[in-house]
Amino acid sequence: MSDEVKLVVVSTLDIASLNQGKALLAKGGWKAGPPVEGDATWSQSDVRIWWFHDRLLHQDNLDLRWQDSTGEQVAEVIFPSRHVAASGQPSLTVHPIGVMYHGIDEEVPFGGKPGRAPPPSTRLGPWFRELLAIENESIREKFEISLEVTHHGPWLETPSLFIEIGSTPNEWPHETAAELLADVMWRGLGLDGGAGIGGWDEATNRGEKVVIGLGGGHYAIRLCAVAANSGVWLGHMLANYALVMEKPEGEGWEASGGVLPGGLWRQAIDEAIDSTRRAFPGGEVWAYLDRKSFKGWQRQSIMRYLQESAIPIGRTKDLLGGE
Fold it and tell me: Where are the domains of the chain?
């Protein structure tokens, strides 16, 4: 059986990604590896860095491409990246990837496989808390720390996350921010000699709660408050825009017992659940709803569908646990 490795994919065309990669290399101990698809690689312990020549959102199957080239099976993929937002708010973010809220025949403008989502990295919640714990005052004053909901590509079979600097060209080259995110990766992947941060062990963690988030905006503000608590494991997160619902016509329709609304919302929820289960074998998937972000009929329909799918719905106090 081939060795399992953790893969950090750096896009050399993305200054935020590039600076994070440089800061990670500057910590030392790396050995140059054989080129993969013509690009430089480095290795240390069970971690690999791939100095990728292109942007990443449409580069599907990077995990399998690495394995085909090296013989090493990829256990997880970390993407240091820039973050783009119309608001221009300086931010440091982490998020899972996937476009499960698109129809399977739709074109996806920002990559991925329509209707599908790779497994989320188990490190999502713990690394978010590492960002919240940054003590550098100038960074804390300048940058907002946030989760982002599941969105964009590429497609992988492997658990993954993006760790990002945003949100405009003014912030992307920020070297101190890049160094701090590189430090999260360094410690988070166990390169400091520690056990790493956010790994999941099926035997040790079996039965622990894993939260999928439903509703709210792109930055999952209410879920951020939940995830800030120690011991919260995070799976996929879907904003309201990813839960497209078509209200049935007819005066007699009731969300509590009538036909369920049409739209892609059930597909998105099913994929979020299934993909999260793949990432957290033995975990117990729960749902957290941003209740106030839904109309009453939407909320009732989602809650009914989750109950039919045997997914418990929890408030903050219900979701605190292990890690």
Answer: 4-188, 202-319
